[in-house]
């Protein structure tokens, strides 16, 4: 995992979009935003994922293959939706088994984008209520294990005035010490 500030320049979203020189973001900074991260080797990952799932209360899981082959005719629509700025009312938990991609998260209160580059062995937990988006890198492929605290669901709420007052958004802001 490598995190840095997104450069906001126009161009293919799958490019790194890193400033020159880079503006890295530390794991400690990510923690202040409620983001959790582990590195778990892919070979023999099941035991460690099972241990972590029990520790963190992740009861369900499934596999997602985000690629043209994996999503078929839905690929372009899904990629557009993944890159729309949104939040969820549940944590987004992903363990990367193959491929690479980028999770962009909003730093609060600056509203800057922080890009988190993920690769095989990275387990990332994005807290409920944080604005974020996802894209593949130029390899156009990521295979990931999705973990869930309850029944598997993935409902995005695109950023709007309504999501700004969503109880999960307000709870997130309170958890990082912003707002009431």
Note the main attributes of this structure.
four-stranded antiparallel beta sheet, 180 residues, five-stranded antiparallel beta sheet, 6 helices, alpha+beta
Question: How does this model look, in words?
Answer:
It is globular, with a radius of gyration of 16 Å. Helices cover about 25% and strands about 30% of the residues. Strands 2-8-5-10-3 form a five-stranded antiparallel beta sheet. Strands 1-7-6-9 form a four-stranded antiparallel beta sheet, with no helix packed on it. With about 180 residues, the protein is α+β, with helices and mostly antiparallel strands.
In short:
24% of the residues lie in helices and 32% in strands.
Task: Set down the secondary structure blueprint.
Layout: E1 2-5, H1 27-32, E2 36-39, H2 45-56, E3 60-67, H3 68-71, H4 75-82, E4 86-87, E5 92-99, E6 101-106, E7 113-118, E8 122-126, E9 132-136, E10 141-148, E11 157-158, H5 161-164, H6 167-175
Antiparallel strand pairs: 1-7, 2-8, 3-10, 4-11, 5-8, 5-10, 6-7, 6-9
């Amino acid at each position: 995992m490598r995190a840095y500030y997104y450069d906001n320049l126009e161009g293919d979203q799958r490019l790194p979009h890193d400033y020159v020189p880079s503006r890295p973001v530390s794991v400690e900074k990510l923690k202040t935003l409620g983001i959790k991260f582990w590195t778990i080797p892919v070979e023999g990952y099941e035991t460690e994922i099972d241990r972590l799932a029990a520790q963190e209360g992740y009861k369900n899981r499934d596999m997602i293959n985000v690629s043209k082959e994996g999503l078929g005719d839905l690929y372009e629509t899904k990629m557009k939706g993944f890159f729309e700025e949104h939040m969820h009312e549940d944590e987004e938990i992903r363990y990367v088994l193959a491929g690479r991609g980028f999770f962009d998260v909003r730093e609060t209160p600056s509203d800057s984008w922080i890009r988190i580059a993920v690769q095989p062995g990275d387990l990332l937990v994005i807290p409920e209520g944080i604005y974020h988006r996802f894209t593949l890198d130029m390899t156009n492929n990521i295979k990931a294990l999705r973990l869930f605290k309850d029944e598997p669901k993935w409902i995005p709420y695109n950023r709007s005035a309504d999501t700004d007052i969503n109880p999960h958004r307000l709870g997130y802001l309170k958890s990082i010490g912003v707002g009431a």
